[in-house]
Amino acid sequence: MSKTQGTFVYIDGSNLNQTLYKLGYKGIDYASLINWLKTKHKATRVYLYAGYGSEKERASLEKLKKHGYIVDMKKVKQYPDEVNTFPCECPDCGKKHDLSIRKHGRRKANCDAELTLDVINDGVRKKYSEIIVFSGDGDFGRVYKYVSDQLGRGVTVFAPMGSIAGNRTSTIIKELHKTGIIKLNALESILGPTGYGIKK
Question: What are phi and psi of 187, to 5 degrees?
Fold first, then answer.
């Protein structure tokens, strides 16, 4: 049985990047982030789950390993564009015609299963004393409850709480915070003014 190694961090990269975009940021300095986690929260292991759509993106993720991240990446699935056609009628002349609306295909690289497995496996093996997760996704609610109630470990979640991105944090996560199962911190509180650094 492995000895407890302190605080482990699990970052849902896709969720984090989409949230930053909603907040109006261009990105985040991952070197600063991991340094902040190690100094402020004494993190001993930091996982990053992310998707890549090109060789350039994959290479960028590979470079993060040099900063100390354990990177779990997968190829992004590109779904085709959809065109939906609706019959319409002009309210003035009564002429009928078809209206076509194009919906751009989604890019998706869901790493929820990988994150969940790592949290549970590391916890069962008693590798960590507490965890920090960057994701407001309600699908992780049961995982957080398991880590807290069954494993008896602390759970801290960083997720958007204010502005337009606040609705990206599930009500399930907010309820877990209210009941004391997890500690919920506002992601906005650690972002630098340009979105590239971490506020000390």
Answer: -60, -35
At 50, give phi and psi (nearest 5°).
-155, 160
Average pLDDT, the chain: 85
- Residue 54 has a CB neighbour count (10 Å cut-off) of 10
Six-digit token pair at 144? 């957080």
CA–CA distance, 140 with 112 (Å, rounded to integer): 8
Cα 101 from Cα 196, distance rounded (Å): 36
Q: How far apart are CA 76 and CA 24, in angstroms?
A: 23
Length of the chain equals: 200
Residue 126: DSSP 8-state:
T
The matching CATH number, chosen from 1.20.210.10, 3.40.50.1010, 3.30.530.20, 3.90.420.10, for 7-77+108-190 is 3.40.50.1010
| Helices and strands in the chain: count of H runs, count of E runs | 6, 10
Neighbours of 119 (CB within 10 A): 24
157 touches 189 (CB < 8 A): no
Confidence of residue 105 (pLDDT cuts 50, 70, 90): very low
Residue linked to tokens 């001993």: 44
pLDDT at 79: 42
Pairwise CA distance, residues 12 & 49, whole Å: 5
Task: Name the nearest CA neighbour of 109 among 21, 23, 49.
Answer: 49
Type of residue numbered 190: I
Domain ranges of the chain: 7-77+108-190
